[in-house]
Design a protein that fits this description.
Layout (H helix, E strand, L loop, with lengths): L1 H26 L3 E2 L11 E2 L3 H17 L5 H23 L4 H19 L6 E2 L2 E2 L3 H22 L5 H21 L3 H20 L8 H21 L5 H7 L1 H16 L12 H9 L2 H25 L4 H20 L2
Antiparallel strand pairs: 1-2, 3-4
């Protein structure tokens, strides 16, 4: 009962804080002005993701002092997440060079990996895939990529929050069905609740945007929780990757495509498949609900299967990604 109350309070805190931040942004003219790369058409307040950051980190602090979060996880989430949110907040209010952002991102990821003791072994068909040092390097790149892909994919109303809620709640459900009630489930549900409070304001048509401080923070926290829960053998890493499918496939294909065409891949653009789909359907809501449907009815059952059969996880992931790849190619060609 206590956990339910705290999760409810997290939702309420995020909801209220987002409203306060929106009022502040309007009074301070902190608006996202539409341009040729935008998916919105009217000036909209930005920076609402800070409500998610504050809510989640306060909840983590509470559970840490309650003795329910280990020291290493607390430092990975709070210090690493705080660094990512801070550089994102500075970027939201002005401009930060891509080099400095990446330096902070890699620093936060390295700190988190150190706190967590590195990346656990991953197997394909019963055999180890990578040696330890290479696995940790892959883990570092994975964390920075997940962090940045949430920045890239936060381009239409509601999509980033829906993705986090789907992934966090989905993994929490898999853990509960696999091992029963577990302390780590509360972290996942707190993150989902924090996003749900913000989503009330960000649902299409959005009254406030998340901003880099929120989107980067969410990607980072999910990456930390993925490595942490995997190291405890609560859930397969393949299950995490499968649930990340929509964002991973769209962002990766779009990035590789832009690099191949010698475009400024690090510059803002509106050529992601989900952005093309929003223009095609003339609706943010339809695309966001479509992502939710894919997560719930396609990716979640496959993630559950991959958790039951981790030796087949790589092949299940490939199967889960194939239709997403087709969709990305289809919508990016429109």
């Amino acid at each position: 009962m206590t956990d339910i109350i705290i999760i409810t309070l997290a939702w309420l805190s995020s909801l209220v804080l987002t409203g306060i931040l929106r009022s502040y942004a309007l009074k301070s003219s902190l608006l996202d002005i539409p341009n040729d790369r935008s998916s919105h058409t009217i000036p909209t307040p930005r920076g609402g993701g800070l409500a998610i950051v504050i809510t989640f980190l306060l909840a983590v602090l509470f559970f840490y002092f309650s003795g329910r979060i280990p020291d290493n996880v607390f430092w990975a989430l709070s210090v690493g997440g705080g660094l990512v949110a801070a550089i994102g907040l500075v970027d939201d209010r002005g401009h930060v060079s891509a080099r400095l952002r990446l330096l902070v991102h890699f620093g936060a990821a390295g700190l988190a990996l150190y706190c967590l003791g590195g990346v656990p072994g991953v197997s394909v068909a019963g055999s180890f895939w990578l040696p330890g040092w290479l696995l940790n390097l892959a883990g570092l790149i994975f964390m920075v990529w997940v962090l940045n892909l949430f920045n890239f994919m936060d381009g239409i109303d509601g999509i980033a929050s829906i993705e986090v809620i789907s992934v966090a709640a989905g993994v929490a459900g898999i853990i509960f069905l696999s091992v029963g009630k577990n302390p780590e489930i509360i972290l996942l549900l707190l993150l989902a609740a924090s996003c749900l409070g913000f989503l009330v304001w960000n649902w299409p048509p959005a009254k406030i945007f998340m901003g880099d401080a929120g989107s980067g923070f969410l990607g980072f926290i999910l990456a930390v929780l993925a490595i942490y829960t995997t190291s405890l053998h609560l859930v397969s890493l393949w299950s995490w990757l499968i649930l990340f499918g929509v964002f991973l496939v769209d962002a990766t294909v779009t990035l590789l495509s832009r690099i191949y065409r010698r475009e400024r891949w690090y510059a803002a653009h509106c050529s992601h498949a989900y952005q093309c789909a929003a223009r095609y359907f003339e609706s943010h809501k339809k695309v966001t609900l479509g992502v939710l449907a894919i997560n719930l009815f396609w990716l979640l059952p496959l993630a559950w299967y991959a958790n039951l059969h981790p030796e087949d996880g790589f092949f299940v992931m490939v199967i889960s990604f194939l239709p997403l790849l087709i969709l990305v190619i289809k919508f990016r060609s429109l």
